[in-house]
Amino acid sequence: MWAALLLSLGVRAQNMTSSPFSRYAYGDMNENVPTGYRAMGGVGFGMRANRAINPAQPASYTSCDSLTFMFDIAASASWSHYQDAGGVKNKANGNLEYVTMQFPLWKRWIAMSVGLLPYSSVGYNISLKDSTAGGDYHYTKDYKGDGNISQVYGGLSFNICNWFAFGANIYYMWGDLSRMRTLSFTETGLNPTIQDEILSVSSMRLRYGAQFFHTFGDHSFVAGAIFENRMKLNSEYILIETQSEDSIPIFKDGWQLPMVWGVGLSYNWANRLTIGVDYERQCMASAMYNGLPGEFSGFQDRNRIAVGVEYRHNPQGRKYADRMIWRAGVNIQDEYLVTVGAKRITASIGFGFPLWTIGTVINTTFEYTHRGAPGGLVDNGLRFTIGASIAENWFFKRKL
Q1: What pTM, to 2 d.p., does this model score?
Q2: Separation CA 88–CA 94 (nearest Å)
């Protein structure tokens, strides 16, 4: 039943981006952290909490209570403002973000998580008008792209001892990414030229994670790491070039998912204050892209740094404001394409609203993102995400 629900949600998912920067590689990548950690800048590798499902770090699943079943679902709405020499454009989007579940398998030693997550999205629509040097011909270049790659995952986490956990996720990825370029002329008698690229994905991948953790009185520390090896992407690539009524399909192979590794640290004081920091490197330059290493297509490795903080005044307080959760963070990362040059900078804040009757927290996140360099394309965006993290005691016997 759950598998059918996840797959149906994946089929209905809409495009999650409208950014021209998604023209490159696999589009805009998703960090796959829950809504609460997104408000902390997207930290996750060193985060370990018993009321959060953290698919970014498979070693974290054993942090859950041995009697608790957890469910997390989130949706988002975004608004983007694009500006370049040709003018400005505004675009709004909305979509389901993720659906995840987590539960213990054997006391506090083994736990499992499953869910539906986005991997990447493509979505843009650009139109440029120009003319030949002599002004004899006037033409328009249109660039359009859409599609997404989704993934379902299953992960296991093992507490090897009281201070070390190891875990792994296996993902099944599927979806289509389409990019179309059209050259059309104002003058009659000149046929348009259309080039359409379609990448269809049906592939598997693995992620491994480890965490070291210890508590000294009110002070808790966690150090974590994740790793994904470079893997072949099972996919079909089609290039269709159409001029007049002639179409030539070209099938190619040679696509790879990049090697990914990351490390993270977090500190928690008395379940009131949490500080986290992550570093991630995605090796796009050495991964095969359309039959060639990514560096030949102008790609560079992507570095990402995230820093975040979470605070609640008193988790057991009688006043509701004492139990509310306050979060903030910053995320700085490279763009894949060398010529883009500028960093992507995201600032985020968020709030957690615990409910009285059940172990549920409504998490909200507000993000502001700036991408691009002065004199070129600039993308400023706002995103609002809301999620419900539900925790219920399922695995215990009631006394009669």
Answers
A1: 0.89
A2: 21
* DSSP-derived 3-state class of residue 395: coil
Structure tokens, 256: 């790879």
Q: How far apart are CA 298 and CA 10, in angstroms?
A: 32
Token pair for 169: 């996720």
How many of the other CB atoms lie within 10 Å of CB of 261? 16
> In terms of DSSP bridges, do strands 302-311 and 343-354 run parallel, antiparallel, or are they unpaired?
unpaired
Domain at 2-393: CATH architecture: Beta Barrel (2.40)
Longest CA–CA separation in the chain, Å: 91
Residue-level pLDDT, tens digit, the chain, 400 residues: 444 444 444 444 455 677 778 887 888 889 899 999 999 999 999 999 988 999 999 999 999 887 889 999 999 999 988 887 667 788 888 889 999 999 999 988 999 999 999 999 998 888 878 877 777 778 888 889 999 999 999 999 999 999 999 999 999 999 999 999 888 888 777 778 888 888 899 999 999 999 999 999 999 999 999 999 999 999 888 877 776 455 555 555 678 999 999 999 999 999 999 999 999 999 999 998 888 888 887 888 999 999 999 999 998 888 999 999 999 999 999 888 777 767 899 999 999 999 876 678 999 999 999 988 777 778 899 999 999 999 887 655 555 5
